[in-house]
Amino acid sequence: MKRESKGTKIISWICLGWALLVALVPLVWLVMSSFKQDPLARPGFQLPESIYLNGYISTFKDLHVMRYFGNSLLVSFASVFISIVMISMSAYVVARLKFKGKSLVNMMLYSTMFIPATALTYPVYNLVKSLQLYNTRGALIFVYACSGLAVSFFVIKNYYLNIPPEMEDAARIDGCGYVSTWLKVIFPMARPGILTAGVLAFLNNWNEYYWASLVLIDKEKMTVPALLSTFTTTFRTNYNGLFSAMVVIILPPIILYIIFSKFLVQALSGGAVKG
Amino acid sequence: MKKKKNRLGIKRQLFILAFLAPTIVAFCMFYLYPIITVFATSFCKWDYTNIQTPEFFGFANLFENYKYIFDTYPYFWEALRNSLSWALLGVVLQIPVATLIALAFSRKGRSVKIIRNIFIIPNMISSAALGMIFLQLYNPSYGIVNPVIRIFKEGFTDNILLLKGPAFWAMTFSYIFFTGTTTLMILGNIMAVPEEIKEAAKLDGASGWKADLYITIPMIKDTLRTVSILSATSGFLLYNEVFFLTKGAAGTYSISYVIRELAITSPRAQFGRANSVASIQILVGMAIIFAINLGYGAVGRRRLKKGGSL
């Protein structure tokens, strides 16, 4: 292989350096500040005088972070499960069978890409109230399961289209009905596509703030992002506590990412990039 | 024989119906019904005084809410200008930077892989948490932005989030460079470009960034179009950053923030007016997507006309 020219290398390294800077500066500063007894006394990038851990101790003692992680996990998993099952069923029908109104279904789902969820704020808020779901975790599961239909639908449908139709014919000859053909043959084959859609939806729901702050009131039902908006009043001038709590809040997703980065990178890039 | 086929037909119909039903129900509940409500009630007097019964303005005063939003409501034009700017910056700043980084990631090497994995970390954190982090970074008494400004401008003690102008950019920079997932999608597509094409380009004397510009980028045009639309719409809908950083102070309102303030936050909630802003948000959002599609289509056609098939 021909070696790359000097110019190419320099541009590459500038880009890589920039990427590193963007990702690390805020996080490193946050962690550093969380060790300072008084961030006001040593502002900016000054190193802490000594490692001060009281903020972390009180975060675990008083904030009950595990509860909020539990809420977030429950809501994200339940909503992703519902929406992915729902979508992988309808996407299969649209991808594989001919029927009247197929283009209507396609168009319907496509149109949701053009509808910003925030525009629907008040009607959805009302709907959640009239379904008796207001201020329950069920409300969030409902909202998350129904939003973002389009992306999952197109990712999964494209995957179905790549599966050779002979697979179904073979299953039919073996006497499988429609449902069992899908369940036993097609669904397992489409797993990578379904996984990609699921991971994308999970990340979205896990980090979602807008609806979480809208339909939940009781603090003990909140997801992690919704909890964040209470921080400025919870901590007021206790900056050490604030920084420590923020580190604790962002740590679990980062740890999970480090463990699963191989899988995540592959899923997000559509399988083309090795993790 | 015919009977059997018929029975199969019914089974088939039932299967199709059963598999489509949940998605269609979800669509109707979450999209169809709300969107009809939004458009219909944007022509109604509907506020905290008549929560249960929206009143139609009548055809003579059909656009009463819109008139109020355009002429009287103080933040609408500011919000529209900001949201449109964020949409535009998504296409002209966010996507080019994300593409450059993706191209750099497509080179081989161990350190490249490590940097790539680090770059995605901020995307694992919610934008609410990032908003909180940047609120601290911009803090004039203990943040890191003011010390940097002081190098150029001695004695600078203002909070940049409260300065009209800088506040807009401070907000923009709090999210626009965190493109981990977008970069990965682009990278995925770059890696999927067939090896033969790259080899052929090399024989023609194109390598490195030259090859990227003339061969790789045109090959991944469809992905670029998709991520451009995604980043323009998410810029247009920006809410979390506004809420966490400024709450609309110093000229940083966004359309989403206006909708939420009118419909929910304000004690004198004005649902009809909020829904007329929402209608505008839907229509302008569609126009943005249309414009991007048109733009990418035009670029493609021009290339073809020039005779280059790539």
Essential attributes:
heterodimer; A: 275 residues; mainly alpha; B: 310 residues; two-stranded antiparallel ribbon; 14 helices; 72% helix
Write up what this structure looks like:
- The complex is a heterodimer of chains A (275) and B (310).
- Chain A is an all-alpha fold and 275 residues long.
- Chain A has helices at residues 6-34, 54-62, 65-96, 102-111, 121-130, 137-146, 149-161, 166-173, 178-189, 191-207, 212-215, 224-228, 231-235, 239-268.
- Chain A is built from 14 helices and no strands.
- Chain A is globular.
- Chain B contains 14 helices and 2 strands.
- In chain B, helix 2 crosses helix 14 (271-305) and helix 3 (76-105) crosses helix 8 (180-191).
Q: Based on CA inertia axes, which overall geometry of chain A fits?
A: globular
| Uncertain regions spanning at least 5 consecutive residues of chain A | none
Mean pLDDT of chain B: 88
Broad shape of chain B:
globular
Instruction: State the oligomer.
Output: heterodimer
Largest sheet of chain B: 2 strands, antiparallel
**Major interchain interface with per-chain residue totals:** A-B, 101 and 93 residues
* SSE topology string of chain A: HHHHHHHHHHHHHH
Structural class of chain B: mainly alpha
**What share of residues of chain A is helical?**
over 70%
What is the CA-CA span between the terminal residues of chain A?
23 Å
- The Cα radius of gyration of chain B reads 25 Å
Strand order of the largest sheet of chain B: 1-2
Low-confidence runs of chain B:
none
| Content of β-strand of chain B | under 5%
Question: Count the helices of chain A. How many?
Answer: 14
Strand content range of chain A: under 5%
What integer value in Å does the Rg of chain A equal? 24 Å
